[in-house]
Amino acid sequence: IFYRVCALSKGLLSPGRGLNQGFQDSRKQGTFHIHEVRDKLREIVGASTNWRDHVKAMEERKLLHGFLAESQKGMPPRRMKDSYIEVLLPLGSEPELREKYLTVQNTVRFGRILEDLDSLGVLICYMHTKIHSVEMSPLSIVTALVDKIDLCKKSLSPEQDIKFSGHVSWVGKTSMEVKMQMFQLHGDEFCPVLDATFVMVARDSENKGPAFVNPLILESPEEEELFRQGELNKGRRIALSSTSLLKMAPSAEERTTIHEMFLSTLDPKTISFQSRILPPNAVWMENSKLKSLEICHPQERNIFNRIFGGFLMRKAYELAWATACSFGGSRPFVVAVDDIMFQKPVEIGSLLFLSSQVCFTQNNYIQVRVHSEVASLQKKEHTTTNVFHFTFMSEKEVPLVFPRTYGESMLYLDGQRHFNSMSVPVTLRKDYLVEP
């Protein structure tokens, strides 16, 4: 899954990916420029570019409530190709764009790519739910979950054009799964770099309650397979939620793992449960933390005047990258992102607290968990908004991380579960680099 050749970009479907080339001849809308995506979203929901107009804009959206469907049955079905769009990020042909995406190592900032994927996912869903008789959409579509992001390569050159594509691959009553791909120009053709699966939810015009979305028509065996994958993904998420360590005890195998780790840290000289020492080449989990604070300014708002989810992902990723770099002692390379649940929106003016921690390591791999919580300027209570999971690979073997408390042991097992969910182990190649 991680080192596909360019020829795959010519195919219609490959495992876990969306449909791409098969839609290009039949689609009517042209390719969007990356700058047009956010502009198009503002146009669809009637959002203003001026912060002082946001109250008036949201009042106008209340008038759209009458266009919401009372049930899904009466809504016109859509095809997958109806939501298919392509977006060009012309880093090569428009060098002035590079500054925003450039790292000091002359690679592309992956945090910026996360922002672009978030915006693209929302736009794709608005293409699926478009009402032709209404200029503005009555729906408020927001990101609910980043199910999985896998990198096919780890090379992102800041001097070659990048192309995104994606479409709705599964729908429920009020939710949609979106599959997106990213390609980078290599010679005269675009080669696959990244696969992403997001889950978006539709809410009413005031973003206060759920709203129905158009059903999906399946037109080919490939589309039926994609839809089936969407159903399986939903079932998998439900199963994982029910077996969460916040709800159920660890398995027998996991309990054995934790007990063996505990025994390996006991001091043989004292024969005491209280005296703990680290094995060689190991670090206590509590010593692998980094924290940051962000003030949520209006500049980082989304089209519904909350903090942009892509901004949250970028900040969490960059803190995770710094944590992995500090822990491993060398530049880490992102391998996978998964299970980012957007539990609560972040209001403008909030204080955003990010806490990053290495929770599992194996050979060259570092699993990092970032916990996000907010506090308003008026209230002192902290509320969790997101939990992010990132898998990195270091250039060299990294120390083992050991939990000291029961709570840290649960974090370790949770990190192990996320690491084991990674599609395929990665072999590091020095010519493939993805940086923050």
In short:
It is built from nine helices and 15 strands.
Describe what this molecule looks like in 3D.
There is one protein chain. The chain is an alpha+beta fold and 436 residues long. Helix content is 27%, strand content 27%. The chain has helices spanning 21-24, 34-45, 54-62, 98-101, 110-128, 221-242, 252-264, 309-328, 406-420; strands at 32-33, 78-79, 85-89, 140-151, 162-171, 175-186, 189-203, 216-217, 282-284, 289-295, 332-342, 351-362, 365-375, 383-394, 400-402. The strands form 3 sheets. An 11-stranded mixed beta sheet has the order 1-3-5-6-7-4-11-14-13-12-10. Mean pLDDT is 84; it is low at 1-15 and 425-433. It is found in: Mitochondrion. Keywords: Hydrolase, Mitochondrion, Repeat, Serine esterase, Transit peptide. This is Acyl-CoA thioesterase 9. Belongs to the acyl coenzyme A hydrolase family.
The fraction of residues in strands falls at: 25-35%
The count of domains is 2
Percent helix range: 25-40%
Distance between the termini: 22 Å
- Find the count of extended strands (DSSP E, 2+ residues): 15
Low-pLDDT sequence parts: 1-15, 425-433
Task: Please trace the helix and strand order, writing H or E for each element.
Answer: HEHHEEHHEEEEEHHEEHEEEEEH
Number of helices: 9
The shape is globular
Q: For the residues shown, what is the average pLDDT?
A: 84
What topology does this entry show?
Elements: H1 21-24, E1 32-33, H2 34-45, H3 54-62, E2 78-79, E3 85-89, H4 98-101, H5 110-128, E4 140-151, E5 162-171, E6 175-186, E7 189-203, E8 216-217, H6 221-242, H7 252-264, E9 282-284, E10 289-295, H8 309-328, E11 332-342, E12 351-362, E13 365-375, E14 383-394, E15 400-402, H9 406-420
Parallel strand pairs: 1-3, 2-8, 9-15
Antiparallel strand pairs: 3-5, 4-7, 4-11, 5-6, 6-7, 10-12, 11-14, 12-13, 13-14
Helix pairs in contact: 2-5, 5-8
Family: Belongs to the acyl coenzyme A hydrolase family.
Keywords: Hydrolase, Mitochondrion, Repeat, Serine esterase, Transit peptide
InterPro entries: HOTDOG_ACOT, HotDog_dom_sf
